[in-house]
Amino acid sequence: MRPATEFDEVEADVPDLKPLTAEEARKLRERHPPVSPWRIVAGQAAVGVVVALAAWLVTGQARMGWSAAWGAWAVVFPAAVFARGITRRNVALRPGAVAAGFLGWEFVKIGLTVLLLAVSPRLVPDLSWLALIAGMVLAMKAYWIALLARPGSRTTDELRSKGAEG
Predict the structure, then answer these.
(1) Is the pLDDT of residue 166 over 50?
(2) Count of CB atoms situated within 10 Å of the CB of 105
(3) pLDDT in tens, 20-67
(4) Which of 122, 119, 133 is nearest to 68 (CA)?
(5) How far, in Å, CA of 81 to CA of 45, rounded?
(6) Which residue, among 88, 47, 72, has the nearest Cα to 131 in the 3D structure?
(7) Number of Cβ within a 10 Å radius of residue 83
(8) In this predicted model, what pLDDT tens digit does every residue of 125-153 receive, in sequence order?
(9) What does residue 143 show for φ and ψ, rounded to 5 degrees?
(10) pLDDT tens string 92-120
(11) What CA–CA distance (Å, rounded) separates 101 from 84?
């Protein structure tokens, strides 16, 4: 017999997990619908356009707009390739194959991003690294908007109910 450990105490506090019934799983999917990766890519592209236009208008310099746009492109294009890779029909739906595919497409996305950043000085005339990084960061963070605005999210439902009341 082995001595009791802290893990035994924690394990004793965890309730037994039971599998969901088909009806419970259906209701859970209705309450928390999946977010399409294409919706996130579209949101990132929209944010990239807004950031590029804002950079151009605020500074009055087209180079700032192009730099911010290239920064957003360095996020959006690899994300679109990733989304295409993970959403295509997969004949083998084995969990290990799906996880390996996800990881593989993530490496492709990172590689494309690094490549786009490496060629930036050659392709964007009079590049502003600050504007490029701003475009990248804001486009990367755009997925939070898509997650918060998805149907079934607590924040979206609260805003809709407050809008209906007022």
Answers:
(1) no
(2) 19
(3) 888 888 888 888 777 788 888 999 999 999 999 999 999 999 999 999
(4) 133
(5) 13
(6) 72
(7) 19
(8) 999 999 999 999 999 998 777 777 766 55
(9) -65, -25
(10) 677 788 888 889 999 999 999 999 999 99
(11) 12
Q: Given the structure tokens 């990733």, which residue do they identify?
A: 82
Q: Per-domain residue ranges for the chain?
A: 36-148
HSE-up (13 A, CA, CB side) for residue 141: 7
Q: Where are the alpha helices (DSSP H) in the chain?
A: 6-13, 22-31, 37-59, 62-87, 95-118, 120-123, 129-140, 143-148, 154-165
Half-sphere exposure of 131 (CA within 13 A, CB side): 29
Q: pTM score > 0.70 for this model?
A: yes
Q: Which residues contact 4 (CB under 8 A, 6 or more apart)?
A: none
